[in-house]
UniProtKB/TrEMBL annotation:
Lineage: Bacteria, Pseudomonadati, Pseudomonadota, Gammaproteobacteria, Alteromonadales
Catalytic activity of the protein: 2-(2-carboxy-4-methylthiazol-5-yl)ethyl phosphate + 4-amino-2-methyl-5-(diphosphooxymethyl)pyrimidine + 2 H(+) = thiamine phosphate + CO2 + diphosphate; 2-[(2R,5Z)-2-carboxy-4-methylthiazol-5(2H)-ylidene]ethyl phosphate + 4-amino-2-methyl-5-(diphosphooxymethyl)pyrimidine + 2 H(+) = thiamine phosphate + CO2 + diphosphate; 4-methyl-5-(2-phosphooxyethyl)-thiazole + 4-amino-2-methyl-5-(diphosphooxymethyl)pyrimidine + H(+) = thiamine phosphate + diphosphate
CDD domains on file: HMPP_kinase, TMP_TenI
Metabolic or biological pathway: Cofactor biosynthesis; thiamine diphosphate biosynthesis; thiamine phosphate from 4-amino-2-methyl-5-diphosphomethylpyrimidine and 4-methyl-5-(2-phosphoethyl)-thiazole: step 1/1
Protein name: Thiamine-phosphate synthase
Entry's Gene Ontology molecular function annotations: thiamine-phosphate diphosphorylase activity
EC number(s) from the headed UniProt entry: 2.5.1.3
Domain Thiamine phosphate synthase/TenI: 343-511
Record gene name: thiE
Length: 537
């Protein structure tokens, strides 16, 4: 049965896996294709090597010939253009050189056609049972320099690539950053395997971002710890293959790299929780579809100058829970939420019945800024409405506003403790899974997801999210806190936004550019309220 969030079969993005065949079925091409299909993609395969493998041993590895490798690549390229590529086992150095050369040429062809293809490399060297898969002890991946979106070594692979042991946390961080520079790619250094002492308690992966397309400038060239509780399962054969193919799948659906990593991590956690053992050795992960259980997603912590590891996940979650106590919980719908740039429109919309409204004055040098904020807060009291002040959190505290709306960039210069102590409600913007997880850690009163459709109101670094992404975000956050959709929403699009199950909608131009904003508000508000009951959509 197809659920509401599934992509129709005919519009599934194509993802290639270039990897080895695992006759045991738990890893390699077999795990990749199962994951790709489970995540609503059409998987194509380029087999690099055939392995005679079970869950307990690798008996034989035979690489395919260069002719066969290239023939598979050319045949696929002529017909089945990928949205993303995952590369797994490359059994010998000559395959690395051959594939990198082919990829370099093909990327130029795709670029000329305006097609962008993210390539994820999982530098597989050893099978879970401990037997070697690749011919050389240390493969050299430098031919892939500049061709990858992400490389995903585990600790032992990172050690091999770095040419030294990485017992100390600082060494591991430096090695990941160095690899990122050497290959000009983002790096996900996986701590999931039970390796050095710093990755015992939980699965801590280090994401080093390098020129990631479509993410906030604030996260560019930064590093993040992604921490998940360690799932104590011996059935972990194919974990790395599943993770990297899931990252490719999520990117193929148009999500940015950082999102793909956190969704794939949640997918792997869910797969491990439901894992099974078909043979005598390590069993394999279950395929459990696109994850929407928030507890499976990692806790994110940006690395600091000290590069300290986050304390345990439960400790981080406890801190988040303590913070939650401060921010106001919104228990009646925000409804149709106008965002306005002046007091006259604010008053007209309050008169028309708006119960939530935001004053958004972007010019910090506006001489009447404080005066307008004072007036907006007073009008909110008169009309018993929730008035949110955009950006100017100090003035909001000074004049005791109901709420403040902040973007994630605004958080750098704001003091959330002061806002919490002042009893002020907080709305936070999010533009991706990654930002949602970060925003959630502050336990705001509501979250706004945008921009759903193209907007001219504001220059956005990200692409419009569209309804499919909004649906995924809503299924992740529904019942956690109120979710507002913003960006390009108007009378025509209102019903389609409603079908995503989002709680509330915010609008700028649909009201400010209407001939009669008050009448427009009333018409849009009635359309929004029609057949909508809070929390049960
Ligand atoms: C309801 C709502 N959602 C999103 C925003 C955008 O906030 P932010 O990202 O801080 O951008 P600016 O509005 O400050 O340009 C918002 N204001 N309101
Ligand atoms: C102010 C704002 N913030 C957005 C976000 O995605 O964070 S989109 C947006 C503008 C929304 O304006 P309109 O309704 O005119 O498209
Ligand atoms: Mg802002």
């Amino acid at each position: 049965m197809i659920n509401a969030n599934q992509t129709p079969i005919e519009s599934r993005p194509i993802v290639w896996t270039i990897a080895g065949s695992d006759s045991g079925g738990g890893a390699g091409i077999q795990a990749d294709l199962a994951s790709l299909s489970d995540l609503d993609c059409h998987g194509c395969s380029v087999i690099t090597a055939v392995t005679a493998q079970s869950s307990v041993a690798v008996s034989l590895v035979e690489s395919v010939s260069e002719k066969m490798l290239l023939s598979q690549l050319d045949t696929l390229a002529a017909d089945l253009t990928p949205a993303a590529i995952k590369i797994g086992l490359l059994a010998e150095q000559s395959q690395i050189v051959c594939l990198a050369r082919w990829l370099k040429q093909q990327q130029q062809v795709w670029q000329q056609k305006g097609i962008s293809v993210a390539v994820i490399l999982d530098p597989v060297m050893v099978a879970t049972c401990g037997d070697a898969l690749a011919k050389a002890a240390a493969l050299d991946f430098t031919p892939f320099k500049g061709l990858l979106a992400l490389i995903t070594p585990n600790v032992s692979e990172l050690q091999t690539l770095a040419g030294k042991t990485l017992d100390k946390l600082e060494d591991c961080i430096s090695a990941a950053k160095l690899l990122s520079k050497q290959l000009e790619t983002s790096v996900l250094a996986k701590g999931g395997d039970y390796g050095p002492s710093w990755c015992h308690e939980q699965a801590n992966d280090l994401l080093v971002c390098s020129d990631v397309a479509g993410i906030s400038s604030q996260h560019q060239q930064q590093s993040f710890w992604l921490s998940s509780p360690r799932i104590d399962s011996k059935n972990n054969h194919g974990t790395g293959c599943t993770l990297s193919s899931a990252i490719a799948a999520v990117m193929a659906h148009g999500f940015v790299l950082n999102d793909a990593v956190v969704v794939a991590k949640a997918y792997v956690s869910a797969g491990l929780l439901a894992s099974y053992q078909p043979g005598c050795g390590a069993g394999c992960l279950a395929r459990t579809a696109w994850p929407s259980d928030l507890s499976l997603f990692p806790y994110i912590k940006q690395t600091t100058a000290q590069d300290s590891l986050p304390s345990s996940v439960s400790h981080c979650r406890q801190i988040a829970a303590t913070k939650q106590a401060g921010f106001i919980k919104i228990d009646t719908p925000l409804g149709l939420y106008p965002v306005v740039a002046d007091i006259a429109l604010l008053e007209a919309l309050l008169k028309a019945g708006a119960k939530t409204i935001q004053l958004r004055i972007k010019d910090t040098n506006e001489p009447t800024l404080e005066e307008q904020i004072i007036k907006a807060i007073a009008l909110g009291r008169d009309y018993r409405a929730r008035v949110f002040i955009n950006d100017h959190w100090q003035l909001a505290i000074k004049h005791q506003a109901y709420g403040v709306h902040l973007g994630q960039e605004d958080l750098i210069d704001s003091n959330l403790s002061l806002l919490r102590e002042a009893g002020i409600a907080l709305g936070l913007s999010s533009h991706s899974y990654f930002e949602i997880l970060l925003a959630k850690q502050h336990q705001p009163s509501y979250m706004a997801f945008g921009h759903i459709f193209a907007t001219t109101t504001k220059q956005m670094p990200s692409l419009p999210q569209g309804l499919n992404k909004l649906k995924r975000y809503v299924s992740l956050m529904k019942d956690e806190l109120p979710i507002v959709a913003i960006g390009g929403i108007d009378a025509e699009r209102l019903q389609s936004v409603k079908t995503t199950g989002v709680d509330d909608i915010a609008m700028v131009r649909a009201l400010s550019e209407a001939d009669d904003p008050a009448a427009a508000f009333q018409a849009l508000n009635s359309a929004w309220l029609e057949d909508t009951s809070y929390g049960t959509q």
